[in-house]
């Protein structure tokens, strides 16, 4: 899988932040104009891959509309077994740009985000860092931890989480309308991760798999409770332990 060559600082005010990310992810600060895949750190950080660019924001663009209506995420609430009086610890095994993870955090859940691509991890970190200083955003930010790792490293600890969340949906072979972000990811990532089967075979409590509405289930020959929307569905599997 391709990953970033380094981090470019575009202004002095961003140098401290870039250095922190460089040390956390063991990625060099670079000045080279020949770099093809890198993160530029600025007021709006950008992932560059050749001539393509990807930005990530939780408060601007199309995703901001979803943020403004996060309390109405009825399908997602049902999928995770949301309760207003109890916080669940959710393992997001396919972090991507962190959109679903951020919604879950806004809903008061504690979310551990796993993403094995360093560039995407940094985009999530920057989207969190650029949130306005508002109580509900600060609470959500504190509810999220981002880990740069393959989710399969957590198979043996699946039972420690209330919900295992998998979203492999952008790996579609159907001719569906794609957003620019999804088109970028399709080209940027040479492989699309779907650890659904591995986590189904783990000692999980509740497993949630987000799919396109008419897509084949990730888990064959097994029943699931499905919560369906107009274009997506959540397939939910519960272990005997999770039902208690």
3D structure, described in words:
There is one protein chain. The chain has helices at residues 15-25, 62-68, 74-80, 99-106, 118-129, 135-142, 180-188, 196-200, 240-243, and strands at residues 6-9, 37-41, 46-49, 52-55, 89-92, 110-114, 144-147, 163-166, 206-212, 225-228, 232-238. It is an alpha/beta fold and 244 residues long. Helix 4 crosses helix 6 (135-142). The radius of gyration is 18 Å and the shape is globular. The model has no long low-confidence stretch (mean pLDDT 90).
Question: What order do the helices and strands come in, and which of them pair?
Answer:
Layout lengths: L5 E4 L5 H11 L11 E5 L4 E4 L2 E4 L6 H7 L5 H7 L8 E4 L6 H8 L3 E5 L3 H12 L5 H8 L1 E4 L15 E4 L13 H9 L7 H5 L5 E7 L12 E4 L3 E7 L1 H4 L1
What portion of residues belong to β-strands?
15-25%
Helix/sheet category: alpha/beta
Total beta strands: 11
Could you tell me the radius of gyration in angstroms?
A: 18 Å
Could you estimate the helical fraction of the residues in percent? 25-40%
- Mean pLDDT score, rounded? 90
From the spread of the alpha carbons, the general shape counts as globular
Sheet of most strands? 7 strands, mixed
* Strand line-up of the largest beta sheet: 7-6-5-8-9-11-10
Task: Report low-confidence residues grouped into runs of 5 or more.
Answer: none
N-C termini distance = 40 Å
